[in-house]
């Protein structure tokens, strides 16, 4: 779990990374979009199961920034070991890192992750979030690319391929790219490999942090309530009167996420 201060600082850093590393032509589209859904981006998790990676409030930004840091480090490794760094740009690498998981927001009219109202799934499987079945089923990389085109943000061919196949061989449909039988169909750049390595590295680190129980929410309330802290408290105000589809079980799950004891 993350403190409200960490959620806030991650979000501020995320916006800064977009502003500083993405061209003005694209950041002028991306930043208003991100700020429009600010509360969702700040608070959404990076996965559904607590043992997977960053399945907690603020987990998405925390994960994406870790992938960016891993990508920057791996860029140095590839360069030092003789990789052809002329096949992609730094902006392409950082754009792919910052938006490879954009599809985890769901759609503009519907979130991807919802608090799980089944205590059995939470206790037995660690599935603290469930998927929103009211929005069309789509793989996360494909939804990421769909959202980018939906808001009018252009992507390069390198960015498109990298985002599409960043899950590597965990997705069987990526075999065409990673297990080519002909030299003509081999990847023309190592960027997708670098991004898959960065994503895998970040997810493994996050699993180890969870496994070692090092990511805990401080028991002391912050003196100055940040925006993230206010969002957490606002979530407690949800009630069945203004949302008839919100069951008592769901309310209990939401409360458990923001329990300050």
Mean pLDDT: 85
Domain count: the total is 1
Helix content: 40-55%
Strand order of the largest sheet: 1-2
User: Can you tell me the residue ranges where pLDDT is under 50 for at least 5 consecutive residues?
Assistant: 217-223, 236-244, 257-261
Name a few traits of the molecule.
261 residues; mainly alpha
Description:
The chain has helices at 4-21, 24-36, 38-43, 59-80, 90-99, 119-125, 140-150, 157-164, 175-178, 191-211, 227-236, 248-257; strands spanning 113-115, 129-131. By secondary structure, the chain is mostly helical. It has one domain. The two termini are 13 Å apart.
Overview in brief:
Helix content is 54%, strand content 2%. The protein has 261 residues and is mostly helical.
Give the topology, please.
Layout lengths: L3 H18 L2 H13 L1 H6 L15 H22 L9 H10 L13 E3 L3 H7 L3 E3 L8 H11 L6 H8 L10 H4 L12 H21 L15 H10 L11 H10 L4
Antiparallel strand pairs: 1-2
Helix pairs in contact: 1-4, 1-5, 1-11, 4-5, 4-10, 5-8, 8-10
